[in-house]
Structures are given as structure tokens and as C-alpha cells.
């Protein structure tokens, strides 16, 4: 099969473990493009060999990304397509790639995403959390004080939270998550698409003990998904804003709508609170 493709930067997702997870379109592009910019050319060699890739390799990692971006722009300007890959998953997602993509946009040249594996999305899809929004947080800071501070800032976030974590920090991080966020549900997605894949949903406050009980549970690559803050966590702020708006003469409905957009709280909950406040004749 031959692929008709235009001259562009193809931002191409590669597998996160199971080599069968490269898409057919991704495989065709990798087998055909004259240039492949890779985060680690040695790491990607087995995949590229398996796909029969014949393109020349260009290193594009976090230490040379700006210079690599320049070379890639030159290739594109010369009419030669380039595929950009990282070690695993989607480039630019906790991986290098964004600088290259930005440089190609800046040069007015086309960027084409070739979607595929991403550990965060794979874990979310298996989480069963009902939040309609999620916040991708990537890796938390490695220093414990900074990590706790970052988590404290997320305490009232109602979206599901998605973190990447390395095995040597998993115990500490899960402990900090529980201390800073309190009772939530945690999904521990380990070694996705690999031989020892394990996906476990459990109360966040029990997770550290569960991980500590068996060192095998601490091995491999992790995505952690934490359920969002319950809406009541924002009730205090919501009530304060509602009181101001109601005292200013707004009706319950309008006050609830404004309070919801100001605080991020749920409009229905704020409306019920507004009605209660009005009925209590405090306002
Ligand atoms: N660009 C990648 C993506 O699209 O998911 C992420 C790269 S980041 C450098 C690597 C981190 O992603 C790992 O430390 C781990 O947290 C997560 N990860 C990657 N592959 C994984 C897998 N198979 N199972 C669980 N987590 C994985």
C-alpha cells in the first residue's frame, strides 16, 4: 500500500507499550516519510525497523529541541515531509515536541497530528469517573514541599485530575495526594497495554497502604486519576458570592448563574442555596 501524503510535519503517536498499538495510518507514514525526528533514535529503532521505515533519523530531544526545530523547518521548506515521534505515546504530552511544532507553525508550514496512544487518555478511558472535565497535570514536582503546594492549589478543582508518576515516587505521591485532597476515588493505571497491566480503583486514603503491601504494585509506569472535588467543597465561596448578589437585589436564578460562573460551582446547587437564603429572610 502506498500513502499519498503532503509535505508537512506529522506529529505521530507511537505505542506506550504494546507495539500493536501503532495505527495503520501512523505505520504508513513512518514507512514512507524521508525524515523521522525522534526523541531517542536508539529507543525508537526497533519500532521503526518493525514498520520498515526507511527515512533518515533526526534527533529531537529536550536538550536540542530548538536546533532540531530549525533543521526540521529547513527539511519542510525543501519539500520533504518529517514525522515527529517521542519515545512513547503522543509527542508534546509530557514529552518534547511543542517547540518543534511551534517553530513549524511560525514558519507558516503545515502541522498534521496523527493520533494514537496516550497514557493519560488510555487511563481516563478506563477510569469510569463521571466528571465531564479532566485536568491533565503531568508530573508533579519531585520536591515534596513543591508537590504539596501544587496539590493544595488543586484542592477545589472539580475536574478529574490526571497525573503521571515514576515508580520510585509513587508511594510518596499517593501519600501527598491523600493528605492534600482528602477522601476521593483514585485510579491506579500501571503498565498500560503491557504484560503486567493493572488497573485498580480504590479510595485515595487507602491507596498508599495498598501499594506498600506488595512491592510489585510499585513497579513500572503509572497514570493516576483522581476524582474531582465534590461541589460542596466550593459551597463556602459560593454562598459568600450569592449573599453579595442577592443583597444587591438579583433574583435567585440570575444570582445562581453569575455565582456559578464566578466560582466554578454547580449552578443547580447554587440556585437551591439562593432559594434557601431568600426563604430564611437573612437577605
Ligand atoms: N507522551 C507520553 C503519552 O502520550 O502518554 C507520555 C510520556 S512521559 C515521559 C512518560 C510517563 O507516561 C510515564 O512516566 C508514565 O507516567 C506515563 N506512561 C507512559 N506509558 C505508560 C504505560 N504504558 N502505562 C502507564 N503509564 C504510562
Give structural notes:
With 283 residues, the protein is α/β, with parallel strands linked by helices. The chain folds into three domains: 9-117, Cobalt-precorrin-4 Transmethylase, domain 1; 120-226, Methyltransferase, Cobalt-precorrin-4 Transmethylase, Domain 2, CATH 3.30.950; 235-279. The protein has helices at residues 24-32, 41-50, 65-77, 98-106, 119-125, 144-152, 170-181, 204-212, 235-247, 252-263, 267-279, and strands at residues 9-12, 35-38, 56-59, 82-85, 111-114, 134-139, 160-165, 185-190, 198-203, 222-226. Strands 3-2-4-1-5 form a five-stranded parallel β-sheet, with helices on both faces. Helix 3 (65-77) crosses helix 4 (98-106), helix 9 packs across helix 11 (267-279) and helix 10 packs across helix 11. The mean pLDDT is 94. The structure holds S-adenosylmethionine. S-adenosylmethionine binds at residues 16-17, 86, 88-90, 93-95, 118-120, 164-166, 189, 191-194, 221-223.
Q: What's the structural blueprint in terms of helices and strands?
A:
Blueprint: E1 9-12, H1 24-32, E2 35-38, H2 41-50, E3 56-59, H3 65-77, E4 82-85, H4 98-106, E5 111-114, H5 119-125, E6 134-139, H6 144-152, E7 160-165, H7 170-181, E8 185-190, E9 198-203, H8 204-212, E10 222-226, H9 235-247, H10 252-263, H11 267-279
Parallel strand pairs: 1-4, 1-5, 2-3, 2-4, 6-7
Antiparallel strand pairs: 7-10, 8-9, 8-10
Helix pairs in contact: 3-4, 6-7, 7-8, 9-10, 9-11, 10-11
The protein binds S-adenosylmethionine (SAM).
Amino acid at each position: 500500500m502506498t500513502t499519498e501524503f503532503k509535505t508537512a510535519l506529522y506529529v505521530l503517536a507511537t505505542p506506550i507499550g504494546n507495539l500493536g498499538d501503532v495505527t495503520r495510518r501512523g505505520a504508513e507514514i513512518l514507512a514512507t516519510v524521508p525524515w523521522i525526528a525522534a526523541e531517542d533514535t536508539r529507543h525508537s529503532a526497533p519500532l521503526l525497523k518493525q514498520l520498515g521505515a526507511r527515512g533518515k533519523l533526526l534527533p529531537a530531544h529536550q536538550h536540542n529541541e530548538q536546533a532540531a526545530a530549525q533543521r526540521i523547518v529547513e527539511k519542510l521548506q525543501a519539500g520533504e515531509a518529517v514525522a515527529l515521534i517521542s519515545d512513547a505515546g503522543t509527542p508534546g504530552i509530557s514529552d518534547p515536541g511543542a517547540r518543534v511544532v511551534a517553530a513549524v507553525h511560525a514558519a507558516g508550514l503545515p502541522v498534521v497530528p496523527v493520533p494514537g496512544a496516550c497514557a493519560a487518555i488510555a487511563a481516563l478511558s478506563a477510569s469510569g469517573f463521571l466528571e465531564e472535565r479532566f485536568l491533565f497535570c503531568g508530573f508533579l514536582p519531585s520536591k515534596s514541599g513543591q508537590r504539596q503546594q501544587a496539590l493544595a492549589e488543586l484542592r477545589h478543582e472539580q475536574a478529574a485530575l490526571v497525573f503521571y508518576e515514576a515508580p520510585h515516587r509513587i508511594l510518596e505521591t499517593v501519600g501527598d495526594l491523600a493528605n492534600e485532597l482528602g477522601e476521593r476515588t483514585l485510579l491506579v493505571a500501571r503498565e498500560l497495554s503491557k504484560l503486567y497491566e493493572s488497573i485498580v480503583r480504590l479510595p485515595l486514603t487507602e491507596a498508599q497502604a495498598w501499594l506498600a503491601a506488595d512491592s510489585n504494585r510499585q513497579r513500572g509506569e503509572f497514570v493516576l486519576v483522581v476524582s474531582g472535588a465534590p461541589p460542596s467543597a466550593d459551597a463556602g465561596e459560593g454562598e459568600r458570592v450569592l449573599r453579595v448578589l442577592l443583597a444587591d437585589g438579583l433574583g435567585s436564578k440570575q444570582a445562581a448563574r453569575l455565582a456559578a460562573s464566578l466560582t466554578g460551582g454547580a449552578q443547580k446547587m447554587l440556585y437551591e442555596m439562593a432559594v434557601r437564603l431568600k426563604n430564611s429572610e437573612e437577605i
